Amino acid sequence: MDLQFVGIDPNTQGNGSPTVWVDADQQEIVIQGWKADEDMSAKISETEWVPSHETGIPEHETSSSARASTPTRTPRPRTGAAGCRW
User: What does pTM read for this prediction?
Assistant: First the structure.
């Protein structure tokens, strides 16, 4: 898995800042962020985002947050990234 760097929080002090990458092979956006606190996790868990879709965060998933100033520009895929939608 080769990650393509997209950006990092411009207000970083150099210790684990929110960062965004793209994995073109897996067609995934990878986000490093702060662990959601109990209040945020509760808000996520209590909201039905899609009708008829289970609420809550499944055991195999997690949630994180990043500042709105963290870059979200999605780069174009490297040459040869077959089937990549980015």
Answer: 0.63
